[in-house]
């Protein structure tokens, strides 16, 4: 099942749980930022994640 994003959507359903997650900004000596391509929506994002609740 694909994940649905509800960023600032006033009609979004009430959450039924909270999951702790973390992200990181990783840079190199030239100031470049490490990004990862998400598998769920094919967009670029900061590396991070949360626990596997499978």
Task: Give a verbal description of the structure.
This protein has 54 residues and is mainly beta. Helix content is 0%, strand content 15%. It has no helices and four strands. The chain has strands at residues 22-23, 36-37, 44-45, 48-49. The strands form two sheets. Strands 1-4 form a two-stranded antiparallel ribbon. Strands 2-3 form a two-stranded antiparallel ribbon. The radius of gyration is 14 Å and the shape is elongated. The two termini are 13 Å apart. 0% of the residues are buried. The model has no long low-confidence stretch (mean pLDDT 86).
| Fraction of residues in H or I helices | under 10%
Please count the helical segments.
0
- Flag low-confidence runs: none
Beta-strand residue fraction: 5-15%
Average residue-wise pLDDT: 86
In what order do the strands lie side by side in the largest sheet? 1-4
Helix and strand element order: EEEE
The largest sheet, given as strand count, sense and whether it forms a barrel, is:
2 strands, antiparallel
From the N-terminal CA to the C-terminal CA, the straight-line distance is: 13 Å
List the helices and strands and how they pair.
Elements: E1 22-23, E2 36-37, E3 44-45, E4 48-49
Antiparallel strand pairs: 1-4, 2-3
Characteristics of this structure?
two-stranded antiparallel ribbon, single chain, mainly beta, 4 strands
Provide a brief overview of the structure.
The protein has 54 residues and is an all-beta fold. 0% of the residues lie in helices and 15% in strands. The chain contains no helices and four strands.
